Amino acid sequence: MAVYFFTEDIAFNFNQKQIFKQWIKYIVESRDFILGDINYIFTSEDKILAINKAYLNHNYLTDIITFPYSIGKIISSDIYICIPVVKINAQNYQQTFSDELNRVIAHGVLHLVGFNDSTKAEEKIMRKAEDESLLVLKEMCNAKKF
Predict the structure, then answer these.
(1) Cβ(80)–Cβ(41) under 8 Å?
(2) Which end of the chain is more exposed for a tag (fewer CB within 10 A), N or C?
């Protein structure tokens, strides 16, 4: 089982795929789940809006939509990430694009392993899990430099 990265309806180059695959696997397994197949699809505003309308009956843009296909403890999913919305959010939250993208990538996986963000209390727990996951990614990237 594995993590895959695709683009759809947008030109976007995603680097360091191997580290991200290891990181996502770590997030899944550290929560006592098993990695199935997770597909990250980086896409445009038009595509994410069409998906949001068709499958969730929402008529607005979003940064991420996660479609879980998990069975028991085996985590599988298609995760759509809208690159233009992530760029806008990065500016709004005064983050770099890569930091915001990394947070969104972790956010999707954390939803799959049981984290929610519907309430303020859940959102606080989700942010803490995102921050912890981002620290692990930073450590993994630093370890690869030596």
Answers:
(1) yes
(2) C
Run of H or E residues at 90: helix 83-92
Residues 6+ apart with CB under 8 A from 43: 7, 8, 9, 10, 80, 81, 82, 83
Domain 3-144 has CATH 3.40.605.10: no
Place of tokens 């089982």: 1
Q: How many CA atoms lie within 13 A of 134 on its CB side?
A: 15
Tens-digit pLDDT profile for residues 61-77 = 999 999 999 999 999 99
75-105 pLDDT, tens digit each:
999 999 999 999 999 999 999 999 999 999 9
**Contact status, residue 115 vs residue 125, Cβ threshold 8 Å:** yes
Hey, where are the domains in the chain?
3-144
> How many residues make up the chain in this entry?
146
Give the C-alpha separation, 30 to 39, whole Å. Answer: 19
